[in-house]
Fold this sequence. Notes:
It is built from ten helices and five strands, in the order H-H-H-H-E-H-E-E-H-E-E-H-H-H-H. The protein is an alpha/beta fold. Helix 2 packs antiparallel against helix 3 (83-113).
Amino acid sequence: xxxxxxxxxxxxxxxxxxxxxxxxxxxxxxxxxxxxxxxxxxxxxxxxxxxxxxxxxxxxxxxxxxxxxxxxxxxxxxxxxxxxxxxxxxxxxxxxxxxxxxxxxxxxxxxxxxxxxxxxxxxxxxxxxxxxxxxxxxxxxxxxxxxxxxxxxxxxxxxxxxxxxxxxxxxxxxxxxxxxxxxxxxxxxxxxxxxxxxxxxxxxxxxxxxxxxxxxxxxxxxxxxxxxxxxxxxxxxxxxxxxxxxxxxxxxxxxxxxxxxxxxxxxxxxxxxxxxxxxxxxxxxxxxxxxxxxxxxxxxxxxxxxxxxxxxxxx
Length: 315
């Protein structure tokens, strides 16, 4: 009895162990094929790009815009003069006029206090300053002419049968009498007019030597000639007034170095102030960073020139 119970107990334990063992897969032959398991691809996360809100483009209605578009607005208004087109043109024109007015008003105020650019420095415009300037210029001009004609004189080539020469003599006599100019009248045909015009010195061109030397082909011809005869400059072919001859004599004297640049400047009613006589060079990078460099440089040059109604303070 006991032996039977033991056998039943043993059999039960064996069956329990067998049940717990994993099933062994059936061995497959060499000819067996099995489809691979399908693997689902990973889900890509889509990046959502948020576009920035586009701001409306703005246009500045400046001078450049007006230059480009006023003609277009005008053409459109002329082709189709509707109320809208006319308004578009004339209001744009009003803006342009106001900009120009603002520019003019500010320019006027700018020149009030920017003395270096004042045209009064060349020649005064106010009555009292202009009168004083003229007196000062006349005095300086007289001194310069006196200096010039101590080194040179005027030679006038003439023919006795030249009617224009006869009419030119009164001006030459006035220069000799009033301005103290040494005038030499040279007859190229050998006939002197000293009786008719005795207030200037007359000589005959011997054998036409002087006429050939100075290449005289027409009469009257007036020249500025140094006292030694080596330096000369033709002033006028044909008739000319005394004032024209004196003006040209001053320019010729400056060219021939018979007077200095300062003497010439003092004799001129309109003062020449130029900043273009010398080359101006500025470092490009510095000028790009500070455009005022150019105006400061030119201002300094102008402030160093002589002004029309001012005197220098001696230091």
